[in-house]
Amino acid sequence: MNIQEIAKRAKVSTATVSRAINRVPTVNPQLAKRVWKVVEELGYYPNTQARALVSGRSRIFGLIVSEITNPFFPEIVQVFETIAVQHQYEILLTSTVNDPKRMESSVRRMIERRVDGVAVMTFGMEEVLLEDLKLRKVPLVFVDVGPPRPRVSNIRIDYLHGIRQAVQHLAALRHQKIAFISGPHRLKSSMAREQAFMSSMQEIGLVVDPALILEGDHTMEGGMEVCAKMLARPTKPTAVLCSNDMTAIGVMRKSHETGLRIPQDLSVVGFDDIRLAQFVLPALTTIQMSQTELARLAFNALLAEVGREIPSPNGTEYVVKTNLILRESTGLAPSIISR
Amino acid sequence: MNIQEIAKRAKVSTATVSRAINRVPTVNPQLAKRVWKVVEELGYYPNTQARALVSGRSRIFGLIVSEITNPFFPEIVQVFETIAVQHQYEILLTSTVNDPKRMESSVRRMIERRVDGVAVMTFGMEEVLLEDLKLRKVPLVFVDVGPPRPRVSNIRIDYLHGIRQAVQHLAALRHQKIAFISGPHRLKSSMAREQAFMSSMQEIGLVVDPALILEGDHTMEGGMEVCAKMLARPTKPTAVLCSNDMTAIGVMRKSHETGLRIPQDLSVVGFDDIRLAQFVLPALTTIQMSQTELARLAFNALLAEVGREIPSPNGTEYVVKTNLILRESTGLAPSIISR
DNA sequence: GGTATTGCAGAAAACGTTTTCCATGCTAAG
DNA sequence: CTTAGCATGGAAAACGTTTTCTGCAATACC
Q1: Residue with CA nearest D12 C1'?
Q2: Interchain CB contact of A328 with B (< 8 Å)
Q3: How far apart (Å, rounded) are the C-alpha atoms in residues A154 and A134?
Q4: pLDDT in tens, B235-247
């Protein structure tokens, strides 16, 4: 069933059918009604492929996330999809599993499908592979990637804001030996968080013990491993700030296994504020980076760029704030209590 | 950049370019090489929309899940996507959030995009809306929906196998008052689990106390609520079997809050075996329903149906087994210990 | 050596839309 | 009353492929 069939039955030309369906105002209301009647009767749905072919716009956005099984991302996908649907956009989802090969193949597939834009939510993964996209003048939006270029927007996360709050919160609870467990060093976002931690510490005159800066991998298992390593060393921290919530949850679990009570013996702060953070025991104090806002911003950035006929000269930069959420996993430093 | 440009530069016709790219064997190797050289040079990617338009196959499968933020689903999405990529298929993901409106709109969008098949992983949601798809002879695969029809495959979950194991495991631990917290009653899969529980109990001569059959909603919050309700009643169970892991985790949490120790005071069994189940404290004994297998089966069912030129007369039925995984949340019934 | 058969590449049709261009009929202005 | 201008709908081109059909040359067979 196609537009010709409709045209025949409504006794008009295909042009009129097209115009009626797209609600072009110049078409005679009576004809339009006739067309719509036939459309309803036959349950006709236009063929998007043909539409895209001639209009040059596919109404598809690509969404690249680093790992859909990481609880941080489903929320983003959900929100992104919801907004997309509202704007009659479709999404092509790719979970790269941090594999450059998959990243490459997904970029290629997106180009082949002629996406109108791509949101790259991998938090600083190798952008080399994205040259292809840039070259093709597809609108892009990244997280934490500089510097801006034409057609490429960037969402900058203001890590410092939340991390500084967290550090000061811990300091106020008399913690001095504060550890930091980062994410993989190859991620830009990961390093940015570490930097923010360091400068927040120095700002209030706390020394950063290099032995208390450790590298995790943003998984719960990784958190457990690093925690074990950390607790085996001579200088033990009284508080630990983690680069994401899964790591923090791993730390909590391993601490529990080794008999450490949280927050009495060790305070733990996470990062991200995934839903799960509210539900672990004790509930995790964490730094919120709103997934909803991130998804919304990313979508709007793409939509804006698609709407522009002359590309923005230097892209646009958006900022997402981070904020400390107080829950139950932080408390007074143990030395204070025992005194 | 299009196929004509390539044809011009390689000094062949567009037909030859098409044949070369699609590796049709009859094309002269020398010509093919010339074509490929130009393709590489220009970084040409074929336009999938045009391809789909003429070939009638979009190489897109729809994937409808009930809620991507429910940890059960990301794993399915991940596996489904991975296999899809291997077969040069794309997926159109929809998370219905259990909203019939969204379900309807997503079905419509999938038809418009001319998907080659749809996997409906909503575990028994209102199929009424899917009439549209059936009518259009799009290959479909469902979970727990009968009876089979042409072009519609079904994955039947063998709930009884795992649930019977769980009930017998609890009985062996001397539990007699075993509660069951179901999912929403409108889900077929939910009722099937409840049925399996009942018959497993009766099979070994245990009485099912109607007061101990409760309805949850497959979320952690729901689990906590139902648990509170359950513990407020006069007849308290010594073990509880939950219709999914999130519910079980909610139960564990609420029990903990009210001072009940698990498994000493209450044994808890989940269903699904999401990754998180291994990581809660204590690790959750649960009934595994392999998400990997489910995704793989669903994809293969669609692929098989697409390959067939004459549709299977009555669809195909696949079966996924369920199995009890023993962890730490189940133990001897409390009355035994105190004796 | 002439005709039938095969192999292979190019021309052109087809896919289902949107959109440009053109024709028609009407209104309004001179 | 005539003509310019405008509104509206139809014809046809265009989008970028695949695929069928056609034609030509080379080989095989009698």
Answers
A1: A15
A2: no
A3: 13
A4: 899 999 999 999 9
